[in-house]
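Comment thread on ticket #2218

A.B. wrote:
> Attaching the input chain for the structure job we discussed in standup.
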Amino acid sequence: MSIASPGLPNPEDRAVARQHAVDLANLLGSKTVSYRRVVIGEPLCYYRVPVHTGHFWFKVLVSDTDFVFTGEHRKRGALTVPFCFSVKQGWRNLGTTMPLKTISQELGIAIFAQNSQAEPAVSACLLKPTVRKILNKLDLAPLRRIFINPIQIHAVSELITPQHCAEQVILLRALLLSINSEAQDSPEKLPA
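C.D. wrote:
> Ran it. Output below, let me know if you need it in another format.
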């Protein structure tokens, strides 16, 4: 995003973001909604594309050069989360700063959690065939940050093209749904 004057977004950036959002919404069978929130440390997104499913609220926030994908269980506050982790890099704000070396080596990507005691639960989930298959399909290069637990996902990525973004969104949504399903099948079951 470029700034036309301090604190004001450039109109060309908004036009580019709108076109990306419209194209993305068409690819995902959704709609484009104006978005006005500013989150420090994240791209300035002008539009939101909802892609809700079942028990989860999902949305794609779109800027001229980036997108943010978020998803959370509709009963988020009522559920206990057995583990959480970040992919590619730790995220201090959410406490996932401890590198999990064993699972990182096995998957070939850096995985971070809140502490080393989380590694057995994270490993058990990420090594499930359905989860691993989705992880292998994700294009991790443009993704800057991914935080996941069984009821929530937050990913920040460069927006290559609306088509590429739609493919990534479908995979990220499937990743959270698979992790949620695997966590429900674990001994520490989550309520549906």
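A.B. wrote:
> Thanks. Noting for the ticket: The two ends are 40 Å apart (CA to CA).
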